[in-house]
Write a structure and sequence with these properties.
The chain is mainly α and 271 residues long. It has one domain: Farnesyl Diphosphate Synthase. 76% of the residues lie in helices and 0% in strands. The chain contains eleven helices and no strands. The longest helix has 31 residues. It is globular.
Length: 271
């Protein structure tokens, strides 16, 4: 969701309200839930996963539901535009390739990671940016913020894997977090966030909106505080990289980032 609000806040001009709402529903009501459901069906996790401490075992019905949700999302996406529907279809294909037992991109730490970062970051940013803007495809290419979105996802995603090392290893999956180790995951994520903020600084400076960058940093103070405290705990004791703290990080980071970009969106649209 933060990428959605970030993309809307970057639109240089009026936003098409109906398309913006439709895109929000397609992404958060159909596409993402379907992707998570399909991943759960393929993984059949028994331990804590994705915000659920004790997940139920998936049934065949879940698979059918994900197929119908994807089909509905793809067809409704044509109400936005043809290229938007094709981009959404590409996301679905990549999501399936990531989780499917026969392809299983998530087995490969680098390829799986890159797939997630480019799709959930850059691709979704561009889908929202062009799809919700009243000016549509005539807008300039948002290279810097689109790349920054990838870095933001790239800095956050490994943290969501840090407590799952044992479960992933048992499933034959090697995640980027496993490759980095628990301490290395935190160091890597900090570096990715610094790179993202560097790109955002350049972008807002080019747009003569440096106060937006300052405002963004204010909203990130709770995230930085929790991240540093948690990192120090993990550095002393690896068991601190657990499900509970990961979910706390999810809530704090998600809430702070969403609020930051929503405020920027309101400022830009009113201004």
């Amino acid at each position: 969701m933060p990428v959605y609000w970030f993309a809307l806040s970057c639109v240089p001009g009026p936003i098409h309200p109906a398309r913006a709402i439709l895109i929000f529903v397609l992404l958060h009501g159909l596409l993402y839930p379907s992707s998570n459901g399909y991943n759960s069906y393929m993984d059949r996790d028994e331990g804590s996963i994705g915000g659920v401490a004790k997940p139920m075992q998936p049934t065949r019905q879940l698979f059918y539901v994900t197929v119908w949700m994807d089909a509905a999302a793809f067809l409704l996406a044509f109400l936005v535009s043809g290229w938007f529907a094709l981009a959404l279809l590409f996301y679905i294909i990549c999501s399936r390739a990531y989780s499917n037992r026969y392809i299983r991109l998530k087995r490969f730490p680098i390829w799986g990671y890159v797939t997630v970062v480019l799709n959930q970051g850059t691709l979704v940013f561009c889908m929202v940016y062009y799809g919700a803007a009243a000016a549509g495809a005539s807008l300039p290419a948002p290279w810097l913020p689109a790349i920054a979105a990838a870095f933001l996802i790239g800095g956050f995603y490994p943290i969501t894997q840090v407590y799952q090392h044992a479960a992933d290893a048992a499933d034959g999956v090697t995640t980027i977090s496993m490759l980095l180790g628990k301490r290395g995951t935190f160091i890597y994520c900090a570096a990715m966030y610094l790179a993202a903020f560097g790109l955002l600084f350049v972008y807002y400076q080019q747009q003569q909106q440096l106060w937006d960058f300052v405002l963004l940093q204010l909203f990130f103070i709770p995230v930085i505080f929790f991240f540093i405290r948690w990192f120090l705990q993990v550095w002393k004791d690896g068991s601190a990289a657990d499900f509970k703290r990961t979910m706390q990080m999810n809530v704090i980071a998600g809430t702070s980032t969403n609020l930051a970009f929503i405020v920027l969106l309101i400022i830009h649209q009113i201004g």
